[in-house]
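Re: beginner question about structure tokens

> Can someone show what the tokenized structure looks like for a real chain? I only ever see the sequence side.

Sure, here's an example I had lying around. Input first:
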Amino acid sequence: MTEIQHNWAGNIDYHAVHWHTPTTTEQVQDIVRNSHKIRGLGSRHSFNSIADSDDTIISLKQMNRILEIDADAQTVTVEGGITYGELCKTLHERGFALRNLASLPHISIVGACMTATHGSGEANGNLATAVSAIELVTANGNLIKRNRAEHADEFAGMVVNLGALGIVTQVTLDIVPTFDMRQDVYLNLSFEDLYNNFDAIQASGYSVSLFTHWDNNHITQAWVKSIVADDASFTLGDSLFSAKRSIIQQSPVGDDRTARCTEQTGIAGAWYDRLPHFRMEFTPSHGDELQSEYFVPRESAIEAIQAVHDLHRDITPLLHVTEIRTIKADDLWLSTAYGRDSVALHFTWKPMWEEIRPVLGKMESALMPFAVRPHWGKVFMMKADDVQTNYDRLTDFQDLMHRYDPDGKFQNRFLADYLRQ
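And the corresponding structure tokens:
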């Protein structure tokens, strides 16, 4: 009997009969060509069934090479199975950086970009906005290449594609000169100060993350990540409004496992060792958890946060922690930040799905007036019609699906539900 395989959190069982881990693009083409139904699997960090298949799953984890760092073009090209953790140190050693990273470096680059996963920052788009070229194997086994410069509007529909257009074998990312950062954590920011000074707080660093458990009327931790430059002094002091700067290492989920967290207390280090919250060599986040995340327009931030705060008696007993972040608008059709600067409300839950479900229903109802978009790779309860109505280019993306996958080879139940016409 084949051993049942699971996602990272253990809440999703994969149902594929056939599993493949190719090492070359030609092998990927053969596998796709000879499969009836197939889905690509990244680092298994999705908390729903978006990557599942009843037939075939293909993992590119053995295709994890850095193919080219082009200093003149300021791009890096990588294979489809590489993770951010596998790329970043080498990139830094060559004098380059990515503009942003997610809270953990363990995730695959392609998986993160295909689902619009993000970091944080007023001027920072989600991780997919760094993609300048893409190579994928389409349903007939053909290899196609598209780039931002030459393929314009179609490219904006292909980057965040949820695996619906093919198996991505390579991506090219924009890079910038390497930089150092510091990370300072401020404790116990009152909700009153948050509501009165939200813009100033979000503008206080290159990337700002706010953590709360909702029950004590405070943002328990504000993580401010700032670029360190030779000619710039650090402008934040010992206070961030009512919050006081911590002089010891903190964990965002409020436990004592601080060794797994990236360095804080203002100690400078390389960008890839400060932008994530968690170190590559440790289990990230809490580990035993589920995750949900909801995106609302920036101008609705305070009202949306207040709507969630009103449900704190339901939320807090089931919660490890909530994180609040900002993301810059982009033009990627299925991106959760498409067309609008956004605020993300991220929930790391205890593994109590039956208890969480009705709370999600309440919370999604409370957020519905703000044109809320759920993270594609995390747990949510929203009906397909409610999700679809907030994506203006959905019909255009459906046309792309029919063009590149007319027989639905890359479709599964999740995509059939949320991308159906």
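Each token stands for a local structural state, so reading them left to right follows the chain. The chain is about 25% helix and 25% strand.
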